[in-house]
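Hello again, I could really use a second opinion on something today. For a while now I've been wondering how a particular protein folds. Please have a think about how the structure follows from the sequence. Here's the protein in full, and shout if anything looks odd to you:

***
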Amino acid sequence: MKKLLVAIFSLIAFSCSSPKIKPLFDMPMGVQAYTYRASFSNGVAATLDTVKALGITEMEGPNPANISPEEFKKMLDERGISMPSIGLDYNIIATNPQEAVKLAKIFGSKYVMVAWIPHGDTFTIDDAKKAVADFNSGGKVLQENGITLCYHNHGYEFGPYEDGTLFDYIAKNTDPKYVSFELDMLWAFHGGADPAALLLKYPTRWKLIHLKDIRKGIANDLTGGTDIKNDVALGTGQINVPEVLKAAKQVGVKHYFIEDESPDHAAQIPQTIKYLKSL
């Protein structure tokens, strides 16, 4: 009996002295507003209450179409949800970046992201060159107003070019003072890139990330598109999520937004959050 008690107390002492395992994901929980595009039209307040109930404290916007930026900001504030980043159309950055500045300041956003570069059936080097010029120009205006422009990859940029890809061309030719990036895990993977390796390849350029996964069995391509039903809860698809999160932490990604375009997002997001907390 004495030996048993000694063994028990030794085990307790070892447990107390052992360093606690730190969670892999320890950042504020965020979500992309596009996830709730169908829900907002049925009630903005109720949708934001759902977001708050999930423990989400950050949202990437901007506001849905049926409410003004000022009113949406007020509703976010009432629920303790901040908006560190907003997504805007490419043409706003290319032709009227001051509009982006104005909207970002309404929300107190430090980042403006662009998620799509206009192009034809295939994304070409000419499309990439135009984007580089527009991002450098628009990003300079944003930077002068204390805001960082981030380009959000969408998969089509990973077509081959010279000794790399068209994304490499964009990364190497945009000015780091004016242009940063937001990694979309799903679209990077779907375009044939390794999301974790991409983060590490350009370690000083990434500020934001979209947390999302793609259904098993879906083949990669350069279309920049896939059926929205192929968005699945994190940890159930093809992407090595822990590897991506480790790389994101290593390069200092600032904000993490769950984006689930699936019609099943209401069921999948709690599953995603549970998975993130389990890592």
